[in-house]
């Protein structure tokens, strides 16, 4: 299937590694012009180098922290100056720390709110004028399967990511008349550094190993395995592509069937 992404301009935040990088890589392979982002300039340069190996790659790297209130305007201004437009926005940010109610102060909650919710809001508001000029505008927020089935020891993520899903669904209705599609992907347990870190915490708590915790988590899925970043990326790239032009307001769970609910 031709996803009609050749020459489309896409911004993927939090894309120097993990799910964001896998998505940026597939967008590049499909012929899109891709702007990647990350806080760690060394890792970001490494990611760009990896993407540039594609013979048709057009990649720009913009360092910065999505939790910085000034970042959204900065990156959108750079995109407008360099390319003059934007077709696709994928808002992705690192998740908040693991823990239970008594583990976090008000400050912890506010920091998590900044990184896990306001980062999406600011990027979408800043990008909206450019997206509105596109013939195929699309927004994808990256959240978590935890909004449908809360995960143990993840109170910050379970709570705040639900706000992003509520905003995403609202914006699908609000921006639909302007032709801007808005969807979200709710990834489950996928083989990324963040999941390794979370499993390390579990292993410490349970006096086990990371491999044991990964195995136990895999067994909870009907597919009996952890997901791969490229599996997430395939779903993400399809949803933002013009090939999915009549899909909006969808909260797509990519979790190997872990969520057992009907919706």
From TrEMBL:
<dbReference type="InterPro" id="IPR050259">
    <property type="entry name" value="SDR"/>
</dbReference>
<dbReference type="Pfam" id="PF13561">
    <property type="entry name" value="adh_short_C2"/>
</dbReference>
<dbReference type="InterPro" id="IPR036291">
    <property type="entry name" value="NAD(P)-bd_dom_sf"/>
</dbReference>
<protein>
    <submittedName>
        <fullName>Putative oxidoreductase</fullName>
    </submittedName>
</protein>
<comment type="similarity">
    <text>Belongs to the short-chain dehydrogenases/reductases (SDR) family.</text>
</comment>
<dbReference type="GO" id="GO:0016491">
    <property type="term" value="F:oxidoreductase activity"/>
</dbReference>
<keyword id="KW-0560">Oxidoreductase</keyword>
<dbReference type="InterPro" id="IPR002347">
    <property type="entry name" value="SDR_fam"/>
</dbReference>
């Amino acid at each position: 299937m031709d996803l009609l992404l050749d020459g489309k301009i896409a911004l993927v935040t939090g894309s120097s590694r993990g799910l964001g990088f896998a998505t940026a890589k597939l967008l590049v392979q499909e012929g899109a012009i891709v702007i990647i982002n990350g806080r760690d300039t060394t890792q970001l340069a490494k990611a760009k180098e990896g993407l540039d190996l594609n013979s048709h790659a057009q990649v720009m790297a913009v360092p910065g922290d999505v939790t910085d209130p000034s970042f959204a305007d900065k990156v959108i201004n750079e995109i407008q100056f360099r390319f003059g437009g934007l077709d696709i926005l994928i808002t992705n940010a690192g998740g908040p720390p693991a823990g239970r109610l008594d583990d976090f102060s008000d400050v912890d909650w506010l920091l998590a709110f900044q990184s896990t919710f306001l980062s999406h809001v600011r990027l979408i508001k800043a990008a909206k004028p450019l997206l509105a000029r596109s013939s195929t505008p699309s927004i994808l927020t990256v959240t978590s399967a935890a909004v449908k089935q809360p995960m143990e020891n993840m109170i910050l993520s379970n709570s705040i990511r639900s706000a992003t899903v509520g905003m995403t669904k609202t914006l699908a209705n609000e921006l639909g008349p302007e032709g801007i599609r808005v969807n979200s992907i709710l990834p489950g347990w996928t083989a990324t550094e963040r999941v390794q870190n979370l499993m390390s915490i579990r292993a410490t708590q349970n006096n086990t190993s990371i491999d044991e915790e990964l195995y136990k988590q895999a067994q909870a899925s009907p597919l009996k395995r952890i997901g791969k970043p490229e599996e997430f990326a395939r779903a993400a790239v399809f949803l933002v592509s013009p090939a999915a032009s009549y899909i909006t307001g969808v909260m797509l769970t990519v979790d190997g069937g872990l969520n057992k609910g009907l919706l």
